[in-house]
Task: inverse folding
């Protein structure tokens, strides 16, 4: 180990990501009109146009759309639902009802390959944005089970039916425990991010 480097993990947490795009106006329209992001800045550097997007005033940007994506990228060799480089970009939602509402918005807003999924630990919708990036929208459940786990999420069922059927599935599955218990257990293995004191 290099002298002066701490043996503790680095003090960091994930913040935001950039996505290379071909058609910036089309992608901006999808992320603002369908997903509700706000454009916080836009500009250019030599050879690249950028649009900064956020859904949280505490974060100047959560996603950056930047021109420069190659015209043709190969499909993922394991499953074409997932990207060749970025497997997925995931967004947390509040309730199953929010997820159901977004499903309709995605269908009306130009998304493709829409795939609702139940992971036991979460309910998800996977969909491609207009340039084929795989997006996941998810709601955490109240339970942990060993992953990966994937069964189809049926929006023909009511929110209560989805919740109750998922609970029953989880209770029969390997590793089952309340998610709060799992979080307490795994937190002991993680190094927390230490934010500096706020200064005005």
Result:
């Amino acid at each position: 180990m290099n002298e002066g480097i701490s043996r503790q993990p680095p003090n960091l947490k994930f913040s935001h990501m950039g996505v290379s795009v071909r058609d910036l106006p089309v992608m901006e329209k999808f992320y603002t009109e369908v997903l509700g992001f706000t454009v916080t800045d836009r500009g250019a550097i030599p050879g690249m146009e950028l649009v900064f997007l956020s859904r949280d005033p505490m974060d100047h940007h959560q996603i950056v759309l930047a021109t420069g994506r190659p015209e043709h990228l190969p499909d993922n060799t394991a499953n074409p639902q997932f990207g060749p480089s970025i497997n997925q970009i995931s967004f947390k939602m509040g309730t199953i009802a929010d997820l159901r509402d977004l499903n309709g918005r995605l269908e009306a807003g130009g998304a493709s390959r829409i795939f609702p999924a139940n992971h036991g630990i979460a309910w998800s919708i996977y969909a491609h944005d207009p340039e084929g990036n795989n997006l996941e929208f998810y709601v955490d459940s109240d339970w942990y089970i060993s992953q990966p786990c994937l069964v189809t999420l049926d929006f023909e069922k009511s929110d209560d039916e989805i919740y109750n059927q998922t609970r029953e599935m989880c209770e029969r599955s390997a590793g089952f425990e309340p998610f709060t218990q799992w979080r307490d257990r795994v937190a002991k293995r993680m190094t927390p991010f230490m934010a500096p004191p706020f200064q005005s």
In short: Residues 96-108 form the longest helix (13 residues). The chain has four helices and eleven strands.
